[in-house]
Amino acid sequence: MLVAERHKKILNTVVEEGSVRVSQLSKMFGFTEETIRRDLEKLEREGKLKRTHGGAISIQEGEKDLPYAKRETQRVSEKEEIAQLALSFIEEDDCILLDGSSTANFLAKALPNIPLTVITNSVRALMELMPKEKIHVICTGGSFSHTAHSFLGPLTIQSLDNYHADKAFISCKALDAKWGISEANDMQAMVKKKMLEIAQTNFLLLDHSKVGKKAITNVAGLEKIDYIISDALADTELINEIKSKDVQVISPDK
């Protein structure tokens, strides 16, 4: 395989998957990991992708907030797995926060019809919770984002200032052990940051594809998170680095 052909196939894979690991590309194309790293370095210099710890992400995926309709169809089994793990931390009469992420919406779907208070800025979560009459639902309001299918902006922040919650369940665009939690835009970051401030215990829900990456806007450092709930595919090396920051990591095999 010619170098140019390999580079084209690597780039196509990164764009299609959103993110890839060096080890994955090495097995896929039959070249050493060192060769793949050099390929990724060259493609990054050409502005075609962005390297991450142990792999690369698509610039198309990594620099913008994807429409909710696309996000909710990605990594469905992983998000369902994460939601089931999160359920074990929710008790009757809890007051919980759910952000506008697709992962938190999977948790909204999974919530049993028991006495709870749910505060959310997510329209999709509201729709999932409407049939569950034992759950008291509080909507933040604010400026509706057609891309995010949630409420954002100053009015959303102002609304959240009126509440205290037992637990917050949020997701994010990316998580890096040093940079912390980050998002694709300021508006999303502001809401998530406020939710972390007003909750007693904070849970970060994220699938393996977001671990070891950075997005443009910082939300908070890992010191603001009590638990990270991820899926079975999360990279062990990256998870161990996060655990060293005194964050409890919950996943099926960790």
From TrEMBL:
Name recorded for this polypeptide: DeoR/GlpR transcriptional regulator
Top-rank taxon, per record: Bacteria
Domain HTH deoR-type: 3-58
SMART domains found in the cross-reference section: DeoRC, HTH_DEOR
A UniProt-annotated Pfam family: DeoRC
The UniProt record lists the keyword Transcription: yes
Keyword Cell membrane applies: no
Keyword list, A-Z: DNA-binding, Transcription, Transcription regulation
